[in-house]
Amino acid sequence: MKKRRILATLLTGVVFLSLIGCGSPVKETKGTVNSANEGGEEKLKIGVSIMELTAYTWYQGVVDGCNQWQDENAKSKGVDVEFDFEDSRSDVQTMLTNLDNMQAAGCNGIILFPADASSAIPTMKECVDSGIPVVVGDYAQNPASDNDVVWSTFVGHDMKALGQKAGEEAIKYLDGLGKDNPVCLFITRPTSGQVSSDRFEGFKETILASYPDAKIIEEGDTAAGNRDSAQTLMENILQRESTIDVVCGHNDAEVVGAYNAAMAQGRNEIKFVGIAGDIDVLGWIQDGNEAWLGEVLQDPVVLGYQATDAMIKVLVDKEELPEKYELPEPEVITEDNINNYDWKNWKWLG
């Protein structure tokens, strides 16, 4: 009898455990942190999908910024961050594949530097629904409704301010010309949409505020968007424009291409203001090349650093972040202050 009772008890236990095993599965929340390294820091895996790492070295600075945050802050925050950097190659489908792979790899959070203004929104919704927060960097998104805004914050430079700073540098030069109606050229990049438009508007508004009679020429580089295409565009502009005082543009590729065209045609009277960060431009400024008024620095290291900082605030500090995560105002590098910058050691310059 005693043996039967023991057997019945064991069978009851087996049935009970079987029922537990057949119950509803526990949903895994990928965005939670549940492991630590030997030092006791929480291990975080953060996916970083970057718009362009192959053809445009500027984004290498974003990688440097993320790693710099890790080096300077991880220990004090009690975290050990593993970054998964992926190159979208300026291709929307590659970007979306990167996001899918990051979800499958169990990333705790994703920092997205998008390839365009809206294609990633449905996938971002999937990420957030799965418990994976998203921080958007550099390229502001264009949501169709408030329900599309699922990212924790946007980390990006003030594109209009970049144009304004370039305009301010141009005015310093124009003030010495004694002309009421100077001529300024700005080469936009139409495929960059609002980003390029904002830079142009900032430049234009700043110039016109000081010189209401100025002629502001906007030309769009609809070709490759590199030095060669900008040079070809500038060659055509120079055929019809006998006077150009200052040239600026969407980025350094556009301005350097215009500079090359002007120098080839002996148009030494034209001055140039760069935007972003280019090793040749900074070298010319360092060497005292009088054609270059300055370089408006769009620092990618700061961008990567602050995007990582924002993600840690979401994952670790559980903070609700503002719609936009502010970055420092853009700086202008000129012959007068270039020695204050360690630009020769910026690996991302190209």
Automatic annotation (TrEMBL):
Tell me the InterPro entries matching this sequence. Answer: Peripla_BP_I (IPR028082), SBP_2_dom (IPR025997)
List UniProt keywords, sorted A-Z: Signal, Sugar transport, Transport
**Where found, per UniProt?**
Cell envelope
The answer to whether keyword Signal applies is yes
Periplasmic binding protein domain location, by residue? Answer: 56-318
Q: Which GO molecular function terms does the record list?
A: carbohydrate binding
Query: Known CDD domains for this protein?
Result: PBP1_ABC_sugar_binding-like
Q: Do you know which Pfam families this protein is assigned to? A: Peripla_BP_4
Keyword Transport tagged: yes
Q: Which GO terms describe its cellular component?
A: cell envelope
Similarity field: Belongs to the bacterial solute-binding protein 2 family.
Q: What is this protein called?
A: ABC-type sugar transport system substrate-binding protein
Q: Which organism is it from?
A: Muricomes intestini
